[in-house]
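=== Structure Prediction Worksheet ===
Name of assembly: unnamed complex
Input type: mixed (protein and possibly other molecules)
Chain count: four
Listed entries:
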Amino acid sequence: MTLPANSTQILIADDHRLFNDAIAGLLRSSFHSVQQVFDGNSLLFSVQKNMPDLLLLDINLPKLNGIEIASKLRKDYPDIKIIVVTMYNQAHVVESAIALNIEGYVLKDSPSQLLLEAIEKVLSGQKFFDPKLHKKVIINDDAFTNQLLLTKREREVAEKLIAGKKAETIAQEMGVGYETVKSYRKNIYLKLGVNSLAELINLMRDLE
Amino acid sequence: MTLPANSTQILIADDHRLFNDAIAGLLRSSFHSVQQVFDGNSLLFSVQKNMPDLLLLDINLPKLNGIEIASKLRKDYPDIKIIVVTMYNQAHVVESAIALNIEGYVLKDSPSQLLLEAIEKVLSGQKFFDPKLHKKVIINDDAFTNQLLLTKREREVAEKLIAGKKAETIAQEMGVGYETVKSYRKNIYLKLGVNSLAELINLMRDLE
DNA sequence: TAATTCATCCCCCTTCAGGGGGATTTACAA
DNA sequence: TTGTAAATCCCCCTGAAGGGGGATGAATTA
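=== Predicted Assembly ===
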């Protein structure tokens, strides 16, 4: 893991002091400027003053809702990259965040490794969504499967896999090679964070 | 296959003359009394007159619906065992038949071997349901999984398989050997007529 | 008592899944 | 123009799934 330029300024907004501090400590080893705020007001103030490159934003901020803040920031400071860091894997929150075109979404119960990975990706211009939060959100939403997760071909393969077809059959049906299908499968599993057909099926079928 | 006492009287009710004749021919080698009827009215008449032990009943009978007939017979002649023989694997039909506590259900596209097996079982007091018609009906209905399909242990294994656990894990969880779990899996697949984990999961998850 | 069912276990075999590395071409975007 | 992403393909490997044969003891039922 190679983290980008440590001239990067990061702002952490989370009312859980302990958590906030812990994350700050974690990031200070890689970034020399790590600011912390604990409520919505000081968040806005700090943004104006420091112009961070990246904001780690908790959804459950006192006074101002995290989503509202994000919405405001999106308009006023479109260059600030935002990663939503929250406890809850609530569909509507994720959807709001996605609607705001937020760069990343990480769940608090994920390993810190994942946050670092998210930061790395987002700073390099990519997006990052916690593999645990596909449910009810990402997969069958075309816009997202397109940009964030599965490509067209991967989705085709995913559907056929779920139907119980074996790689060889899928290859024939799609007019591509067996190895191609295996590659797709590999990528699908990677992107969706599953590692067996059973998990894939259960994941997909949990989306209504 | 040893078919029970050939003093047994069998009545076949099916408006498809050809099919009816074929079945009759098939059964006449094992049963000396095989009657045939081709519509609901003559069915009722024949039942009164001959008092068959076993009725092979088509659902799509002209004039009177097979289910209605079965319902009527259940009340008036509870001793006549009924095997529904039909083309369609329609959930509501199967459910109606089961609600009437019908002894057996065989699909027309199954091998004749299966019909003989069904007759044998039903005449010996057991029930028989075509392995192809589990969908939407049988599996998580305890009464049926108990008597007709999976044993207690098999159901346990099935659940764990569906959760995506591998045989070895299941063995440890259940405190039995790996080979035991493989046997259960084999039997589950056999009984449910599936031949892959994907099919199993999709089958089970189609039951609401 | 004899027959059947259930739960348990065993061996064999083949195929495929799953995961680790790649590469190439095309096309589009920075 | 240079790079990135998508689509395609390749090789290797391990282990497990899937399916074919069994067997055995205990319990239940005919």
